[in-house]
User: What shape does this take?
Amino acid sequence: MTLILLAASLTIALSLIAWHLAIYALPVMTAITAFQYAHGAGAGFLMSAAAAIGAGLASVVFVLAVLGFAKNPALRLGALALFATPAAIAGYALVHGATKTMIDSAIALNLLCGASGLIVGIAALINLNGVAGSNPSR
Assistant: This one.
C-alpha cells in the first residue's frame, strides 16, 4: 500500500513538472532527430547542432503560424494534435520510467502511465492554445 501511495504522489509531482514542460516536447524531439540525422550524414558537431536548433525553431514557427492564420477548426485541431502527441508520449514515458520498479501489476502501471500521458497531452493542448490565443493579429 505504501508503494502505491508513493507511486501516486510521484506521478502527481512528475505530472506537474511535465505540465509546465509539455509545450517543449515537439521542438525537442524534432531537434534531437535533426541532430542525429545530420551527424549520421557526416556533418560535424557544430553543423549538427545548428541543424537541430533550426529544426526545433521551424517546428514551433510552423505550428504557431497554422494556429495564428488558419480559420478552419480542423486544421487548428490538427496542429494542436501534432504538438500534443509527443507531449503525451513523453508524459507516459516519464511516469513509466519513474514507477516501473514500484508497481508490480502491469495493468496498474499502464493505467497510471496512460493517465499521466493523457494529462500531459491535455496540458500541451491548453498551453499551446493559450500561446496562440494571445496573438494580437486575431
